[in-house]
Amino acid sequence: KEEKVGEKGKTTGSFHNKQTQQTTTTTSQPMGAAPSSGGPTGGLNGSPLDLAGAWVPTRESEWYNNNPGKHKNRARASNTRLVYEQSGIGKGNVGEFAIINEVTQIAPGQYTCVSRIPHGWGMGWIAYDGNFTLLGDGTLHVSFPSNGITEYWRREGGYDGRISNTSAPVASAPVAHASNPRVPWRPVRIAIRRFAKNSELGSLENLCWHWGVCVGEEHHCYETQGSMVIFGPRGMVAASSPLMIRLNPTHINQYEGLCDLGQSTQKTDQEIEEFSRAWVKRHPIYLIAGPNCQTYAEDLFTFLTGENLPFPKSSTRMTNWSRGEKGTSGGDGPESHPGMTWIAKPVT
User: Fold this and answer.
1) Chain-centre distance of CA 5, in angstroms?
2) Which of 21-25, 114-118, 176-180, 197-201 has the highest mean pLDDT?
3) Calpha distance 323→147 (Å, rounded)
4) 64, 6 contact by CB (below 8 A)
5) Which of 213, 239, 231 minimizes the C-alpha distance to 24?
6) What is the pLDDT of residue 212?
7) What is the C-alpha to C-alpha distance for residues 88 and 102, in angstroms, rounded to an integer?
8) What is the reported pTM?
9) Mapping DSSP to helix (H, G, I), strand (E, B) and coil, where does residue 341 land?
10) According to the model, what pLDDT value does residue 13 have?
């Protein structure tokens, strides 16, 4: 699997991060409270988490975050170590910070994470948009785009083969799965639109695009919006607040472009809705930097195909841009991907 530096990283760093205070009008999370991860944690389908055990830093010079303090120094600190239980709970330290992670596997070698600092220096820091990928050599690539965090971990004592990234690219839209010919494959595409029409937001020169996921030739579309509510082709699928009552379904005509990455899935709409309800329980608060529409779109894409998206989220692009990486744009998003087909003319 190709490594995307800066698009996967882990929890640590800042205390009283102002992102944690940008809650929606319908949901709130008190500072220092435990993550509201009502959804399941651990391995696939309730199995034990395959990351269980002790992990220590590797590739220390590549550690980074946007928060105060040198993250490379935390990677080199003697006490930086995390131990994961089979339930998905990980505890330990990253430099001066005590850390608790809640990890959920969503595909082979792919995980999401809610992380917090429960006590001591930095108490109250929470990040909900963790994206973990197990690389082919056993390295765990961890990122929290909302905080610009990138980290690399290895199993303490060396890679022992107990964990491997078994996911592989899914064949593009065969007629049916050999083991279950009654379940057809459906194409999976990323849909995008500008945040605000008739404005510079969302133009090809900047970073502000809304993402959704379209499944099947019938273009069943799934997306999350600002009050952490997920909509699908049959209306509202899940919400973090009981006050959300909008039932309007999504439709392909609500987007400006479709990005075809050659991926497909046998997951049903029912499985997508079950995943989405659990996802909202683990991500109850919508934050501009993440978790947001792009966080949900990548996690759902990974759940459906076993692969991460091949382009960075807006938060990561802004981090890359601030570091002077990948030109002035911070890296290309789906709007520049060769698989993009425009439904409506984009801003240029």
Assistant:
1) 15
2) 114-118
3) 14
4) yes
5) 239
6) 95
7) 6
8) 0.78
9) strand
10) 34
CA distance 331 to 207: 10
Token digits of residue 263: 């991926």
Strand arrangement, sheet containing 186-194: 235-239, 229-232, 220-225, 209-215, 186-194, 257-265, 340-342
Q: Tell me what the mean pLDDT of segment 163-181 comes to.
A: 41
Helices 293-305 and 269-282 pack at an angle, to 10 degrees, of 140
Classify burial at 61, counting beta carbons within 10 Å of its beta carbon; exposed 0-12, middle 13-18, buried 19 or more: exposed
pLDDT higher than 90, residue 50: yes
> One-letter amino acid identity for 189?
R
Whether the predicted pLDDT of 336 surpasses 90: no
Partners of 180 in beta bridges = 177
Burial track 316-342 (b if 16+ CB lie within 10 A, e otherwise): bbbbbbeeeebeebbbebbbebeebee
| pLDDT value for 313 | 84
- C-alpha distances in angstroms, 220 versus 47, 186, 260? 30, 10, 14
Are 347 and 197 spatial neighbours (Cβ–Cβ below 8 Å)?
no
CA–CA gap between residue 154 and residue 58 (Å, rounded): 6
Q: Extract the tokens encoding 138.
A: 């056993």
For the chain, first and last CA: distance in Å? 33
**pLDDT of residue 202 exceeding 50:** no
CA 298 to chain centre: 5
CA distance 220 to 251: 7
